[in-house]
Amino acid sequence: HHRSSSLKLCGTNYPLSICFIVVNEFCERFSYYGMKAVLTLYFLSYLKWDKDLSTAVYHAFSGLCYFTPILGALIADSWLGKFKTIIYLSIVYVIGHVIKSVGAIPTVGNKDVHIALSMLGLILIAFGTGGIKPCVAAFGGDQFDEDSMKERQKFFSIFYMSINAGSLLSTVITPVLRGEHSPYCYALAFGVPAALMMVALAVFIFGSSLYKKNPPQGNILLQVCNCIGFAIKNRWNSSKSAPKRTHWLDWAEDKYSKRLIEEIRMVLRVLVLYIPLPMFWALFDQQVQEDSAQICTSCFYELQFKYQKQFSGNLLSYILWISESGPAGLWSLLHVHPPPGQQALFRYITELISHTRRTCSVSRQESGTIVAKRMEDVEANNVHIAWQIPQYVLLTAGEVMFSITGLEFSYSQAPTNMKSVLQAGWLLTVAFGNVIVLIVAEGAGLEQWKEFLLFAGLLLGVCVIFSIMAYFYTNNDPEQLDKIFLEDSRWDEDEDDNMKKKNEEIQLNKAGKSTRL
User: Fold this and answer.
1) Alpha-carbon gap, residue 204 to 88, rounded angstroms
2) Burial label, 146 (beta-carbon count in 10 A; 0-12, 13-18, 19+)
3) Where are the beta strands (DSSP E) in 231-297?
4) 137 touches 407 (CB < 8 A)
5) Inter-axis angle of helices 17-37 and 111-142, to 10 degrees?
6) Are 478 and 265 within 8 A, CB to CB?
7) At a CB cut-off of 8 Å and minimum separation 6, what does 29 contact?
8) What proportion of the chain, given as a percentage, has pLDDT over 90?
9) Rounded mean pLDDT, 400-424
10) CB of 433 closer than 8 Å to CB of 421
């Protein structure tokens, strides 16, 4: 602990160990999102599943990735500690990626073997990525001392930046790898993320001597459940003449310590505050979970690779132009039309981003040329794609502020022995947001614009409710709690020492009197 706290990064107050944690997170997110970038296309074109089955499996996998953090948090806080949990579950993660890659090799078995290997790989990946999600963020926060609060807050911003950087690069690179060498080279597309996950594990292990490692505190979940159950049972069985308690958890004081009761009260206070938050993710994930967008993605990546390279180069030049020209450059961009050879590609990108309800199919001629055919149920328009930049700027700004604040808030408000558990509670809001999307999208059967309007209206109502809840919320101070109970424990030890001294003096006096007698 002394060594890890003494090594700082380039003369700053940041511990050197966070470099390994941030690089690990970047590689892990590259691995995860790189695999997901071609997952739906793999189901459709390689396993020959229909759209409904592909969408169901995709959503089930995504949901499992955000429900398993609870399991990882319990293992970390109750049994192995965060460091060992990250190591062991990362190994499971790597094995899942390798199995998934092997299942995509055409010469390995038949279709049933490919399906079995793919499903086994996805399950292992879900347990691996979900299990380490709450542990890595909390483990990074553990590296900071009590006097480095500002640095810790900035760390979560850097941590989230690494998440987005890894997901951005992987989403662009992985589909290119799949189409660069062979139209069906999914083994390479899945193998590169597997290699990046191995790099992530190696980087994390390499910095092991620098980490501050807090030991686990025992089976916290079992204690929490037993304490809550005892309090409810004691309150239910109490007579009317029994003295009233300040909080319903105080009915557990007969059996459990005041510290445990206060820690449970802290966690429940935050979890109640999180109840409205899944609606944010339900609306935000509309831009990435539309079935039609996934199908159009298939058509997009079946276009010839030369158009992808042309588009990448011109898009980069447009971005640099905006950064150098400022608002004038952006305004000019709204009137810029791409070269004729790229117009078809821009139309597909517009369809992909704007979520218009369209179906597209890909057919291969005898000569091997890819021909993209499109059927539209809405008329084409002349609205430029750049007009959607303001919407995505607002969406991204809201998501960044929401996610970074949530990560730091979940860490700062959690007791020392429940850091990972509360991080997992924060990630559960994403999982329940996906559940809401599935229920509304599959059950209601509304048109797309009505779905968007419904979710936006619900989120507006949730904002009002959450604002009221936040106004009455009282901040937790886990460090102050540690100091209070540490002083109490010292006072109890002093009292025990005084009692022992008094008993020894009494025994000596008795011995002296008996000697004189």
Assistant:
1) 12
2) exposed
3) none
4) yes
5) 150
6) no
7) 162, 163, 164, 165, 166, 167, 170
8) 24
9) 87
10) no
Q: Would you give the end-to-end CA distance of the chain in angstroms?
A: 58
| CA 68 to centroid of chain Cα atoms | 11
Full-model pTM = 0.71
| pLDDT per position as a tens digit, 140-162 | 989 988 788 888 888 998 998 89
Residue tagged 């760390």 (tokens): 155
Distance of CA 378 to the CA centre of its chain: 36
How far is CA 230 from each of CA 84, 219, 238, 240, 417, rounded to the nearest angstrom?
32, 17, 12, 18, 21
Other beta carbons within 10 Å of 452: 15
Q: Let me know: does 72 contact 133? Beta carbons within 8 Å.
A: yes
Q: Is the dihedral of CA 343, 344, 346, 350 positive or negative?
A: positive
Structure tokens at 498: 């005084």
pLDDT tens per residue across span 31-44: 999 999 889 889 98
- The full length of the chain comes to 517
Indicate the pLDDT class of residue 1, thresholds 50, 70 and 90: very low
99-137: burial string, b at 16+ Cβ within 10 Å, e else: bbbbbbbeeeeeeeebeebbeebbbbbbbbbbbbbbbbb
Helix (H, G, I), strand (E, B) or coil at 361: strand
List pLDDT tens digits, range 202-222.
999 999 999 998 888 777 777
Q: Which two tokens stand for residue 335?
A: 């009137």
Question: Phi and psi dihedrals of 279, rounded to 5?
Answer: -65, -30
